[in-house]
Structure formats: C-alpha cells, structure tokens
Amino acid sequence: MRENKNNNTLVGAMAAIIIGLLIFAFMFRGPLDDGQEDRKEIAPPEQTIDLKLAAQLQQEYVRTRADSINAMLDKVDTRDFWFSLETMEQYIDYVKSEGEKKGYKDMGIRIFYAAYPQDSRDPRADPGYSTVVLVPTMGKPRIANGFFPVAPIQSTAGGIKALNFGSGGHPPNDVQ
Q1: Domain assignment of residue 159, given as a range
Q2: Is the peptide bond before 117 cis (omega within 30 degrees of 0)?
Q3: Based on C-alpha coordinates, what's the Rg of the chain?
Q4: In this structure, is residue 13 part of a structural domain?
Q5: Which of 43, 73, 127, 151 is in Cβ range 3.0-4.6 Å of 120 for a Cys bridge?
Q6: pTM above 0.70, yes or no
Q7: Nearest one of 157, 155, 41, 54 to 102, comparing CA atoms
Q8: Per the domain annotation, does 166 fall within a domain?
Q9: From start to end of 36-146, where are the E strands?
Q10: How far apart are CA 176 and CA 165, in angstroms?
Q11: From first to last of its 176 residues, what are the pLDDT tens digits of the chain?
C-alpha cells in the first residue's frame, strides 16, 4: 500500500511538473499565428494621397501624354508597373544594408522612366515597352553656389544595384 502511495505521489509530482512546463512554454512562445496578434499601428508618410487623387493624377497623365506616346510608338505603351510588397521590402532592406556597409547617409530611391530596347534578349524584359528603374540615392547633397539657390539633389549611391523587372500592365491599368 505504501509503495502504491509513493507511486501516486511521484505520478502527481511529474504531472504537476509537466503541466507547469507546458504553461511556461506557452506563456513565452510569442503570439499565436491566427492573424490576431497585436500590431503596432504605423502612420502613413506625409506624401501619401488617397486613391481618388491618385486616379485624378493618373487620368491627367493619360489625357496629356499617353496618346502622344502611343502614337509615336504605334502601339499602346505600358503606363503602370507592379512590384510585390515582398520584393519592395527585400529591395529596401538590401539598399539599407549595402548603404550602411558603404557609410552612405540620407538614403532614398529615385524612380526613372525607362524603356526596353526592341532587340532585348533578356527574358524578363518586355522589348519596346516602357519600364521603371529604381535607383538608390545617398545624401551629401550637391548644392550649386551662385545667385539662385538650387535645391539639394541626392547622388546615385554607387555600388548598389538598381531594381527593375516589375510587371507592366498590358493593357494599361487605371487607378480605381
């Protein structure tokens, strides 16, 4: 009988230890992956605009430029470009990392209009159509001295790759 009591005490103690460890593990394992985790709200940058204004700006581009470009090219050119958030986040992280290694300050990204050559053999390119190229920039603004002050212009951040090969709209998409 005494041996049975010792076994019950041992089993009870082991069960309490296991339950305690499970509670401890669940308390410190982080949020559950159910999409309900608390996320810090992030304020949008000052440069953000609502979609109604974005649509107006895009329609102004179409009204004042698209027909001329399409007539010159004798085809409907791409006027919208898409990159996944994952690609953009990875690119921004890459630019930050490389910029830190090189000691660059006040980094940014300049977006250039560009076009693929008609004879491009790159399978990622869309020969003869427009594209955009994102080029990292750095501080150390160049300011012209003289009578008329010139706004600072960031320089291209040398040694850091540019981003291209997003998806272009065929046919072009409008902001909605």
Answers
A1: 47-176
A2: no
A3: 29
A4: no
A5: 127
A6: no
A7: 157
A8: yes
A9: 81-82, 108-115, 130-142
A10: 23
A11: 555 555 455 555 555 565 554 454 444 555 555 555 667 999 999 999 999 999 999 999 999 999 999 999 999 999 999 999 999 999 999 999 999 999 999 999 999 999 999 999 999 999 999 999 999 999 855 555 556 656 667 888 889 999 998 888 777 887 87
Determine, yes or no, domain membership for 125. Answer: yes
Handedness of CA 70, 131, 135, 120 (dihedral sign): negative
Number of domains in the chain: 1
**70 lies in some domain:** yes
| Lookup: tokens for 25 | 């593990």
Give the burial class of 110: count Cβ atoms within 10 A of its Cβ; 0-12 exposed, 13-18 middle, 19 or more buried.
middle
